[in-house]
Amino acid sequence: MIFCSVPKITFEKGMRIMEECKIKNLYNLEETIAKELLEKSTYPWEVLPDIGAYILELGETLDKDEYEKVGENVWIAKTAKVAPTAYINGPAIIGKEAEVRHCAFIRGNAIVGEGAVVGNSTELKNVILFNKVQVPHYNYVGDSILGYKAHMGAGSITSNVKSDKQLVVIKNGKEMIETNRKKVGAMLGDHVEVGCGSVLNPGTIIGRNTNIYPLSSVRGVVPENSIYKNKNEIVEKQDR
Questions:
Q1: The pTM is what?
Q2: If you average pLDDT over every residue of the chain, what do you get?
Q3: % of the chain beyond a pLDDT of 70
């Protein structure tokens, strides 16, 4: 299997943002069947081109007592609940106790973690959903990775292509990381909460345990353990 090379870092202050965006600082890899794929890379967007191939390789090794191969390259756990109106295109893996609801549209290259919820009219494409992720109501998630127990409120989406069709760059003020990819959605750390109706612009990185206010337009890097109210007001969570 071929993995992407480490992206070019620009500006001298890139080291701090590089740390914030690393897989090890965003995710608990014990909470995904994609652990082996992710632990071979530094940044989450590096694995996006390899999700499909990884599913094809992993799917053939899944315990046949626990998973059933349905159609072409779709593996569904026998304990998962999949609505008859849902559409799942392979390659895809639907984990144990996951729920795929009415009219969900899974376009392929998708890993849905154990206990995850893919809701009514939600669309997935080239994604990894860690265990217990919830995208339950009218969400679009493309070219993105959502950490353990991340939740996207109704109508919130990931935008994965810039309007000018240029390559996506991860930005945090003057600090930048070039992804060398045209399509990069959002990387949500563990326990991230995204409010209803929000748009996560291409290359958005949200640190662990962070909350995004409803109706937000988010871009760049949002620190862990924070509350995003708007681009000019991001506050650190206080202990209660």
A1: 0.91
A2: 92
A3: 92
Q: pLDDT category, 80, cuts 50, 70, 90?
A: very high
Q: Which two tokens stand for residue 127?
A: 């994604």
Parent domain of 30: 9-70+126-226
Where residue 57 falls (left for φ over 0; alpha for ψ -120 to 50; beta otherwise) is: alpha
Question: Do the domain assignments include residue 39?
Answer: yes
Distances (CA, A) of 63 to 56, 80, 100, 180: 14, 14, 21, 36
Distance CA 173, CA 186 (A): 17
Examine residue 95 and state whether it is found in any structural domain, yes or no: no
pLDDT (tens digit, 9 = 90+) per residue, 10-27? 433 444 567 889 999 999
Question: What pLDDT was estimated at residue 108?
Answer: 93
Vertex 116 angle, CA 115 and 119, to 5°: 130
Report yes or no on 30 lying in a domain: yes
What residue type is assigned to position 230 of the chain? N
Q: Are 68 and 78 in contact, with CB atoms under 8 Å apart? A: yes
Count of structural domains, the chain: 1
Beta bridge partners of 146: 129, 188
Bridge partners of 173, per DSSP, are none
- pLDDT of 172 reads 84
154 exposure class (CB count in 10 Å sphere: 0-12, 13-18, 19+)? middle
Is 196 inside a domain boundary?
A: yes
Residue 214 confidence (pLDDT):
98
In 3D, which of 16, 30, 83, 23 has the Cα closest to residue 48?
23
